[in-house]
Design goal:
By secondary structure, the protein is an alpha/beta fold. The chain folds into 2 domains: 208 residues, Periplasmic binding protein-like II (D-Maltodextrin-Binding Protein, domain 2); 107 residues, D-Maltodextrin-Binding Protein, domain 2. It is 33% helix and 20% strand. The strands form 3 sheets. A 6-stranded mixed sheet has the order 3-2-4-11-5-12, sandwiched between helices. Strands 8-7-9-6-10 form a 5-stranded mixed sheet, with helices on both faces. A two-stranded antiparallel sheet has the order 1-13. Helix 2 links the parallel strand 2 and strand 3. Helix 2 packs across helix 8, helix 3 packs parallel to helix 4 and helix 5 crosses helix 11. It starts with 8 loop residues before the first strand and ends with a strand. 44% of the residues are buried.
């Protein structure tokens, strides 16, 4: 039987704490973050425990992998092919790329048992952990262990928008409500730093993906957009957009980037092999290196992370903006 999942994220009144203070907090309070009742967390690491009953483990003949749908999935099927071949050798399993079209589809696929290994975007990590049993363990970084990206609010030359205050009365394109840089962070920042409330001082429209937002600004379909600057830089490196077509009016602090992991009930021995595949992947000369070298810092390897520590600031943003999730 197929298990269907739906989820909703909605904004409640903003907390009085300014985002500047919020982002300065060294440790997240984790107040309000809870796993779906179907999962347990006996060790307190904020992610679902592996089932104690081996009968509940999954050991599929083919591992299904999906990369966060920030851009055209067809582009990334080729980018990830070499890595998936490496994972197949390490795990002894067939590995298939699943070209998801939305965050909702990716979340539903993992919760329903159709997705085993994935890279979820920054903002979707909390709901993937809470509602889909996602266990993130890796993130891309430079050879010097530098990682992260910034949220950028962009417009086009001649739009009349030169600073965040000019967004009052305008419409901003966001990617999706589960995206950190594509919705949650800019909404929080505009509220805390400029006193602007979404739906009151400016309107929101949703493009579905970061590349759609960038191209919408480039083609002057959107007055402004909030995007992950790492996505925009990769698009410019490929010639999909040109630097002179975009004006950045705001850049945030650095956030953690896409988190990679597996579903909680993957057979432990197989889960260990999946982790081995990430950390043993030879980046030099790979399609992954070619695609992600244009980011700043360049992404050149996978490093270990924990959801509890590395996603503390994202959970705090969710808490400060009143974001909650309903898992069904």
């Amino acid at each position: 039987m197929r298990c269907h999942m739906s989820f909703r994220a909605w904004l409640r009144p903003f907390a009085a704490l300014t985002l500047a203070l919020l982002l300065a907090a060294p440790v997240a309070a984790d107040t309000g973050f809870k796993l779906d009742p179907r999962y347990t967390d006996a060790d307190g690491d904020l992610v679902a425990d592996t089932p104690t009953d081996p009968k509940q483990w999954v050991d599929p003949p083919t591992l299904i992998f999906a990369y966060t749908p920030v851009e055209d999935p067809a582009v990334y099927a080729k980018v990830w092919q070499g890595f998936l071949e490496h994972m197949a050798k390490v795990t002894g399993k067939k590995v298939q790329f699943f070209p998801v079209q939305s965050n909702a589809a990716q979340l539903e696929a993992m919760r329903a048992g159709r997705l085993h290994v994935a890279g979820f975007n920054t903002g979707a990590n909390p709901i993937a952990v809470a509602c889909a049993g996602f266990v993130p363990f890796a993130m891309m970084a430079s050879k010097q262990n530098e990682f992260g990206y910034e949220m950028a609010i962009i417009t086009y030359p001649g739009s009349g928008i030169t600073k965040p205050e000019d967004l009052r009365g305008k419409t901003i394109a966001f990617s999706s409500e589960t995206s950190n840089s594509g919705y949650k962070a800019p909404v929080a920042l505009l509220k805390s730093q400029y006193g602007m409330q979404v739906g009151q001082d400016y309107q929101a429209t949703f493009s579905g993906k970061h590349d759609n937002s960038v191209l919408g600004v480039v083609n002057k379909d959107y007055q402004a957009a909030a995007v992950a600057n790492s996505v925009m830089k990769r698009m410019m490196a490929r010639g999909v957009a040109k630097p002179e077509q975009v004006v950045t009016i705001y850049t945030s602090q650095t956030f953690p980037t896409t988190g990679y992991g597996y579903v909680y009930n993957l057979k432990p021995e197989l889960a260990a092999k999946v982790k081995e595949a990430f950390f043993s992947f030879p980046w030099d000369g790979s399609a992954l290196q070619q695609e992600f070298k244009s980011t700043e810092p360049p992404q050149e390897k996978f490093i270990p992370i924990t959801f509890k520590d590395n996603w503390a600031v994202i959970r705090d943003i969710d808490a400060a903006t009143g974001v909650t999730y309903q898992c069904k």
